[in-house]
Write a structure and sequence with these properties.
The protein contains 18 helices and 13 strands. With 434 residues, it is α/β, with parallel strands linked by helices. It folds into 3 domains: 96 residues, no CATH class; 212 residues, Rossmann fold (3-Layer(aba) Sandwich); 87 residues, no CATH class. The N and C termini lie far apart (56 Å).
Length: 434
């Protein structure tokens, strides 16, 4: 069995030693997801709730990938590459159905058991814009699936024998003006995970049956010392509330890489892609954590990659990185949120509710996971937020503000600041054109 090792040159990222154990680990991974499909989901729960997350929220795709320029009448053909039990697929297919958006969500996964759960969830929702193929990413070139407008690959690349090759396959399957939503694990926010993974690889080697390995993990967790770093980490709870599948995927997964922000950006760049955004963008702004003029002056001299690395090191709680990416040949233009005919839209939380979260001194306490940061907004933002309904244009909002004593010149300043801040929090975006 190959040992896990930490390469200091990769600043804490984990990699497999170069022994011929890829097949053994890959076989163990396949057995894991047949025995314990992840994440653990009950299809009957679809009757009472829709799980919402990132990437692959329809409003995020419209904004971060297509820059609010792709008409909603244009069909959206989607590939979920490694759909698991279907969280992203069900969310996006449901969003498209509710918005009467044409297109199809194609779910690809090599686990028959995981696909059966995703199918049952789709059936509960009576979704007709979704279909399923049992296959792996490396089989895509032989499947003749055509090109996709959007590809989701969430929580998959870090488990593959060759993430770079897999991402290149996906890039080759992407339409010229399309984009992807990616998620990978991050090392610092998962402190304690890899220590325990190392211990369990000794006590429950990947050659053992999944049921045997899970039994060992449960015994270890029963007696885990109070000093174990995992006990101190509140950034995730799969081992506490995720059932057998959650515990197994967190602590027994036979291949688990973690990427710092710079290494994730390298992975994206090397595949011929470019980053449209890291979510939430403000999370990667270290100035939010360091409200000191001298420190902020130093930060302002750093490039984006350096600032992202600094923010990750300072915050310490980033357990994942989520990115929207496009082809590096895609001449994307930033959305024009100042145009009077553009239509702002709340991603999820209604503007009235977000305004109510503001303090009397116009601060929005915002949670980046377990870290709460005070975000300053203009005083007028409290009145603007309830007006953002996905129907009113920027010009409409400006007219309403004018009746409240805010002239056009003042509105432009206030709107620029309000939108820029709330966009960086992934809370206010622009609606795609009709």
């Amino acid at each position: 069995m190959a040992a896990w090792q930490t390469d200091s040159a990769l600043k804490g990222e984990r990699t497999l030693s170069q022994h011929n154990t890829t097949d053994e680990r890959d076989n163990s991974l396949a057995a894991q997801y047949e025995s314990y499909p992840y994440p653990e989901r009950n299809p009957l729960d679809e009757r009472k709730r829709l799980l919402i997350g990132s990437p692959s929220h329809l409003r995020e795709i419209d904004y971060w990938v297509f820059k609010a320029r792709r008409p909603r009448t244009t069909p959206l053909n989607v590939l979920i590459a490694g759909c698991g039990t279907g969280d992203a697929a069900i969310m996006l297919a449901t969003h498209m159905t509710r918005a009467d958006r044409s297109g199809e969500v194609l779910c690809l996964d090599r686990s028959d058991k995981a696909l059966s759960v995703a199918k049952a969830r789709a059936e509960e929702r009576k979704l007709t814009n979704i279909r399923f193929i049992q296959a792996s990413i490396d089989q895509i070139p032989s499947l003749n699936l055509g090109l996709f407008d959007y590809i989701d690959c969430c929580g998959v690349l870090h488990h593959l024998p060759d993430p770079e090759a897999a991402l290149q396959i996906l890039n080759n399957s992407l339409a010229a003006d399309g984009g992807m939503g990616l998620m990978v694990y991050a090392p610092y926010g998962r402190t304690g995970v890899y220590m325990l993974q190392d211990a369990l690889h000794q006590l429950a080697p990947v050659s053992d049956a999944p049921k045997t390995r899970l039994d060992i993990a449960r015994r270890v967790m029963r007696y885990l010392p109070a000093t174990a770093w995992l006990r101190q980490n509140g950034n995730f709870g799969d081992h506490l509330s995720g059932g057998d599948a959650g515990l197994y995927d967190l602590l027994l997964n036979p291949r688990d890489r973690a990427y710092t922000a710079p290494r994730f950006l390298d992975l994206i760049d090397n595949a011929g892609l470019k980053t449209a955004c890291l979510l939430e963008p403000a999370r990667y702004n270290p100035s939010l954590f360091l409200p000191d003029a001298k420190l902020r002056a130093v930060i302002s001299s750093l490039n984006f990659r350096e600032q992202a690395a600094l923010a990750e090191s300072l915050a310490g709680n980033m357990a994942t990185h989520v990115a929207y990416v496009v082809k590096n040949t895609n001449p994307t233009l930033p959305p024009d949120f100042m145009a009077h005919d553009s239509v702002p839209v709340m991603r999820e939380i209604p503007g009235t509710e977000l305004a109510m979260q503001m303090t009397p001194d116009h601060i929005l306490p915002f949670s980046f996971g377990t870290l709460v940061v005070p975000i300053a907004l203009p005083p007028q933002a409290r009145g603007i937020l309830p007006l953002i309904d996905g129907v009113r244009s920027v010009g409409d909002i400006a007219q309403i503000l004018a009746t409240r004593g805010v002239p056009d010149t003042k509105f432009e300043t206030v709107w620029r600041e309000t939108f820029s801040v709330l966009e960086s929090l992934n809370r206010v975006l622009l609606q795609a054109p009709s």
